[in-house]
Amino acid sequence: MSKRNKFWLLALTLVLSAFLAACAGGSDKEAEKEQENKSGEAKEGGDLILDVLSDASSLDAHGSNDVVSSNIHANIYESLVKRNDNNEIEPSLAESWEQIDDLTWEFKLRENVTFHDGEKFNAEAVKANLDRIRDPKVASPRFFLFEMITDVEVVDEYTVRIKTEYPFAPLLAHLSHNGGGMMSPKTIAADYEGMENDKEPGAVISENPAGTGYFKFDSWDAGSQIKLVKNEDYWDTPAIVDSVTFKVVPESATRIADLETGYAHIADPVEPNEVKRVNDSGNATVNQKPSSSLSYIGFNTEKEPFNDVRVRQAIAMLVDKNEIIEGVYEGFGIPAVGPLAPGIFGFNKDVPVVEHNVEKAKELLKEAGYENGFKTSIWTNDNQQRMDTAILVQQRLKEANIDVEVEVMEFGAYLEKSAAGEHDMYILGWSNPTGDADYGLYALFHSSQKGNPGNRSFYENPEVDKLLDEGRREADPEKRFEMYNKVQEYLVEDAPMVFIHHQEYLTGVSNKITGFDIDTSGIYQLKNVQFVE
What is the C-alpha separation between 163 and 140, in angstroms, rounded? Predict the structure, then answer.
């Protein structure tokens, strides 16, 4: 590995570790409190039930880019490498790797690993997966993770070489993403056959997904629940519980009631105003985890009047993000100045802050020809925090005679319609599981990523495209840092979205279980969960 790449990886690890340590202050005390509440002896087996807000949109590892689906993928599929609690890259399905030259990485794969359907994991399986995610016919929303790859070469049964178009420093970080999860070549072949018979890409895979993970697929009752069962033939230490059921429970009050009565063992999310109730219940506690994610309000920049930067800037000034953080999130999380959280490589701490300023906003609207306001709509899915945010935005925009209709829809339909550009304004979030600016910026703002991959603002700026492309090709971390800082300055000026905050994940956890965690990108860690009695 080149010295520059080694330096970049070390710098990224150090800055992320410092951020997480700072944000998680007091976590040791929280862990002690959790253990005090969970008296009893741990046991194996049992059926773990999670009440979750929304259903997955796809069980194809390449077929979606939302956290809800990723939480299922992370338990079925495994990637070549993974990240530990200190955000360091560790072996997973690859036992070791080395950089042969600036454009070539070689991976030695783990032997004696089988997929859930009995297929062998080997170099051919890796090639099948990485070729598929880059196949234009599949049109994967996670293509951006691996579009720099030009060739996947099978050296021998357990050795694979990955070649890139240009030196790409965060390749290992991207390979740790669950979008790089390995699916059975048999299911991939069946899915291609389904596509030939006019089925959507991923439709066949979603019917019976097969990975190498510690849980395997059992059933999916769309809109109701997904059940996974323990993989008894797992190559490493197996999971402890017998099964995991993700129940779709849109109503927050029902999730909390289920948690308190024992009908569920994990409730996600817990609304901020419910934290005290859960912690005082004697039946459960709230796991609080700082995140690398962003909550935001986006504009469809291809639609009037949001194709006028002055209108977007005005709304950014009308929205009171502190009111949203305090009123909706009860103060959990930190205000966002841009799209990247502190601690993410490339974060610009000096980017200009957009202040709440009604008078200035009215001046900008007048310049744009909207002195008397206009009518529009804001979309959100059936998430209480986002719905509450929409109401506050509706109220604030009234101050400038902007009449906003709030539209709420089911998550899957919401993603589909917003990807198609049918919206005016919308509320969403974006996590950053790689810890790098490329992941936090490329999918959201590069013009090639419009729609499903992430750029639902349909934002386009040639200078931003150029910087994001160069940032992917530059190995020098200092130069990359400068490029991403400049991108964030453009984004604050162009205002394709209003950056609200970097949230804190609030998850209700029953005192009947131990070993649960959630990472900074919102992915559940369920392998070590076990019941106590």
Answer: 20
